[in-house]
Write a structure and sequence with these properties.
The protein is α+β, with helices and mostly antiparallel strands and about 90 residues long. It is built from two helices and four strands; from the N terminus they run ββαββα. It has a two-stranded antiparallel ribbon with strand order 1-2. A two-stranded antiparallel ribbon has the order 3-4. A hairpin with a 7-residue loop joins strand 1 and strand 2.
Length: about 90
């Protein structure tokens, strides 16, 4: 699979090239699958089992739309650096 590419400008978004996978099963129609790269899924907060829909804008552009908007959640909490004041109370 191709690696993530990024142009030289600071404002350019990261690009995640991928291939569309075709599944051919005897007696069934061809099915196509598109996988979302993990860094992109993590940035969007996408989880397995979510319901999404494609919006066709033109032959060259699709938009992925969440059917149910979820509130933004932090996946990690930042750790506060220890200060001398915090360490004084712990020794007692």
């Amino acid at each position: 699979m191709p690696k993530k590419t990024q142009t030289n400008t600071q404002d350019a978004p990261a690009s995640y090239p991928l291939r569309i996978q075709a599944i051919r099963t005897k007696g069934q129609n061809v099915r196509f699958f598109v996988y979302i790269p993990m860094p992109l899924a993590a940035a969007l907060g996408i989880e397995g089992g979510e319901d999404v829909s494609w919006e066709l804008l033109d032959r060259d552009e699709l938009h992925l739309v969440r059917l149910e908007a979820r509130p933004a959640e932090a996946t990690r909490t930042a750790k506060r650096p220890a200060t001398a004041r915090d360490a004084v109370g712990k020794g007692k």
